[in-house]
Amino acid sequence: MMQILSTFEQNRKNIIGLLQNHGLGQVNSIPSGCHNNLIWNAGHLLVSQQFLLYHFSSLPMPEFVQQLAPKYGSGTTPDGNASQSELDMIISQLNLTAKQVIKDFNDGLFSTYKSYTSEYFGITMNNIEQAIYFNTYHEAFHFGFMSAIKVYLKQD
């Protein structure tokens, strides 16, 4: 599990680095041929990770999740109106929650897990280990989209 947690943490560093290298206008921009933007992908990953790991483990989620879920949860689309403070908060929480997941896993906090099947991917998670593997895959999947958006932003 330490390898996948290390990969998860590195994914987060990559996502944060990508966000920090773009201005607010760029993270809000939806390039031609794309369906979303950089900040939507980042916010979506933050919300999804909290639901996949904490909600389905019957653990409380931080207050920011309720604030972000209507805008970044599954099935949402970007509005292109994220503020600088929202971007800063998402970047901060991407960093903090990565460290918290690792700590909580190592401390044995995830003692139960309610089985969940991702509608989009058709993958079922029956325990926290499977959820962490899936979450890491999901974040790498979206980082790929974010990397493509970065290329399109240079062309627009």
3D structure, described in words:
The protein is an all-alpha fold. Helix content is 65%, strand content 3%. The chain has a single domain (2-155), classed as Four Helix Bundle (Hemerythrin (Met), subunit A), CATH 1.20.120.450. It has six helices and two strands; from the N terminus they run αααααββα. Strands 1-2 form a two-stranded antiparallel sheet. A hairpin with a 6-residue loop joins β1 and β2. The protein is globular, with a radius of gyration of 15 Å. It starts with a helix and ends with a helix. The mean pLDDT is 97.
Q: In brief, what are we looking at here?
A:
By secondary structure, the chain is mainly α. It is 65% helix and 3% strand.
Task: Break the fold down into its secondary structure elements and pairings.
Blueprint: H1 2-20, H2 24-28, H3 38-53, H4 63-72, H5 84-106, E1 116-117, E2 124-125, H6 128-155
Antiparallel strand pairs: 1-2
Helix pairs in contact: 1-5, 1-6, 3-4, 3-5, 3-6
Highlighted features:
Four Helix Bundle (Hemerythrin (Met), subunit A); two-stranded antiparallel sheet; single chain; about 5% strand; about 65% helix; globular; about 160 residues; mainly alpha
